[in-house]
Design brief:
By secondary structure, this protein is an alpha/beta fold. It contains 8 helices and 12 strands. The longest helix is centred in the middle third of the chain and has 15 residues. It starts with a strand and ends in a 5-residue tail after the last strand. InterPro entries: CheY-like_superfamily, OmpR/PhoB-type_DNA-bd, Sig_transdc_resp-reg_receiver, WalR-like, WH-like_DNA-bd_sf.
């Protein structure tokens, strides 16, 4: 995987690049926001993930994240010393896919990189990801964002589709409520819990499969793949 590391500290960048290279990443180092934006031309330039430090010399990392998100859907992981909740929420609202606070464990950072790349690979068929997810009589067309049951198209809202696609990528795996809110709504759990419950109920009703999405009390939800 090609990875764009946006970090103005050359010593930090060199050390992290060495670690990432040992784990199979091809790292390009950008020292400023403008350099990062240029590296992503055209159309993301083939990068799989962007690691974005917020303390850049020419412009704020939040501003850079917003510009990246307007140009491409490449996953962005913010890497920063800003640990307060408000900063994390702001970053996620701007379109960041994850937020890692310094100092961090290298193993955790690697796990987060792999996690965001798995979640987004389906968005571009050219990456080799699946074009459709088949779950018994349910078919989820990822490129066209269309869902059908027994061949009949079911009209879903954007968030309903995003929620279903997220759960369907890993049937049987429990997704925490906080994780779903972060990935689908790009915000924090606070005040959004009721919205998630409403969307789950709506999906069950529209698909006419009350048992498709199982509530795991106190934790979150998982998709139970129906029989074909």
């Amino acid at each position: 995987m090609r990875l764009l590391l946006v970090e103005d500290d050359n010593h930090v960048a060199a050390a992290l690049s060495a670690v990432l290279a040992r784990h199979g990443f091809h790292v390009t180092h950008a020292r400023s926001g403008e350099e990062a934006l240029q590296a992503l031309v055209p159309e993301g330039a083939g990068f799989g993930v962007v690691l974005l430090d917020l303390g850049l010399p020419d412009q704020d990392g939040y501003e850079v994240c917003g510009k990246i998100r307007k140009r491409t859907s490449i996953p962005v992981i913010m890497v920063t010393a800003r640990s307060d909740v408000r900063s994390r929420i702001h970053g996620l609202n701007l379109g960041a896919d994850d937020y890692v606070v310094k100092p961090y464990d290298t193993g955790e950072l690697l796990a987060r990189i792999h996690a965001v790349s798995r979640r987004t690979v389906h968005e571009d068929p050219a990456t080799g990801g699946e074009d459709a997810l088949l779950l018994g009589s349910v078919r989820i067309e990822l490129p066209t964002r269309q869902v059908s049951v027994d061949g009949t198209v079911v009209q879903l809202t954007r968030k309903e589709f995003d929620l279903l696609a997220l759960l369907a990528q890993r049937p049987g795996v429990v997704f925490r409520r906080e994780q779903i809110i972060s990935e689908v709504w790009r915000t924090s759990w606070e005040g959004t819990g009721r919205t998630l419950e409403v969307h789950v109920a709506s999906l069950r009703a529209k698909l006419r499969m009350p048992a498709l999405i199982e509530t795991v009390r106190g934790v979150g939800y998982r998709l139970v793949a129906p029989a074909a």
